[in-house]
Amino acid sequence: MTEKCGVVGVSLDEREAVRPLYYALYALQHRGQESAGIVTHDGFQQHSHVEMGLVGDAFDEDDLARLAGSAGIGHVRYPTAGSVDKGCAQPFSVSFKSGSLGLSHNGNLVNADEIRDELAGFGHAFTSDGDTEVIAHDLARNLLEADLIRAVKRTMSRIHGSYALTICHDDTVLGVRDPRGNRPLCIGKLDDGYAIASESAAIDTLDGTLVRDVEPGELVVLEPDGSGFDSYQLVETEETAHCFFEHVYFARPDSVIDGHLVYEARRELGRRLWAESGVETDVVMPVPDSGRAFASGYAEAASETTAAGAPREEGQTGPEFAEGLMKNRYVGRTFIMPTQGERERAVRLKLNPIKSTVENKTVTLIDDSIVRGTTSTQLVDLLKDCGAKEVHLRIGAPPIVAPCYMGIDMATREELIASDKSVPEIAETIGADSVSYLSTNTVAEALETARDDLCLGCVTGEYPYDIEGEETDRNVTRPTIDSGIEADD
Ligand code: 5GP
Ligand code: MG
């Protein structure tokens, strides 16, 4: 099961944590719409409310009033086809001999089954098939024998895969990022405390300031009185595996991830698209909302140089930038529609062209990515119906050729349009006059990150983790999970 989710944790001096958590979840809503939940701790006991649906629907005033305490964590969960199940909603909470534990997870473990089997053998009862519960039980078990820091370290030495976690151990809030930093996680300072969140936009929403990213392999422990935090580098890492797709699609453009403002990264990718594969058309048009920043960078670069790379002369302009597709903001994400027919219908519901912007014109349509090809096929068709003379498609990422095991529910290999087609074949299938993507090297350059420090699994088919039946692009092996806690330092 793969999950792309949003996590948050806050620890405040005296103020109740529930409101800031609730607002932060609103800020992270784009990372998950299936369920929302908050766990708080008031110094004596834990409180939890987890519900299916959007943040605005999941809590009413009474629910919020019951979530007492100045420490807590929250979670929004991404809808994955076929797994609409309250048992998987988070935060996951468990009480045990030495206290209570709440856990929010963004990411996906690739060895959860092994650990679940082992723990089940020791008598742990599991209520879901999710990997978050596996982390929670493993941590709870380790906490019986070791202090908090050593317990987290031992769990980190056993689990393999991607995880950005916020944890509430009694009224202590922790943040943990996997040793390769696959999913984002950052620390923010608030007036009266600290917060840990998937994205800095959540910190902004709380009028806080971004302190820094949680480092890959780092455990951050917030002081229960909100006065500061302690840091423990529990696993040393040489190479990171930051998900490039966070920058291309998932994260909010107003978030800063691993030192890069997402909006600027997308504009830079757009500029490079023009430099590498620009085509002189009458108009440039984004697919809203995901193509916007790319299209603005593309159009800006196109106003400076010609498609051949020469500087524009005085008075000579590039393609006109037009917001020619109107989006109905009330239609949910097309991606989760279970059948192809419904997905096609949903694209039509969601996007409508403004005829005058395309009629008798040559058009460049810009989007962040092509997954199945549904959106682009429908849009090219629509634009041509509206009288576009040519439609060229420019994509701000490489072709997606393989599934994501790291926390993004993409599609199976067979469903991915690029898994078995060349770029010209894709253009033909989609009905576009031309299609161009960016290369993985260009993406790495635009993100100012070494290629080896990115996870490019979905565009190369080689993963930075040891996944059964898949290739890896580096020297990684799964940990052996049976090392005893006494073996710890
Ligand atoms: P396609 O229609 O080709 O299957 O999907 C491409 C469109 O879906 C693009 O507009 C892109 O912004 C969006 N997209 C890419 N990845 C994801 C994803 O993981 N989830 C959702 N909801 N949309 C995605
Ligand atoms: Mg899109």
What is the number of domains?
A: 2
> What order do the strands of the largest sheet run in, or round the barrel if closed?
3-2-4-1-10-9-11
CATH class of the largest domain: Alpha Beta
Main β-sheet, in a few words?
7 strands, antiparallel
> Poorly predicted ranges (pLDDT <50, ≥5 residues)?
none
- Counting DSSP H or I runs of 4 or more residues, the number of helices is 16
Beta-strand fraction estimate: 25-35%
Number of E-state strands: 26
Distance between the first and last residues' Cα: 33 Å
Question: Which small compounds were modeled alongside the protein?
Answer: guanosine-5'-monophosphate, magnesium ion
Tell me what the CATH architecture of the largest domain is: 4-Layer Sandwich
Radius of gyration using CA atoms only? 23 Å
The chain-level structural class is alpha+beta
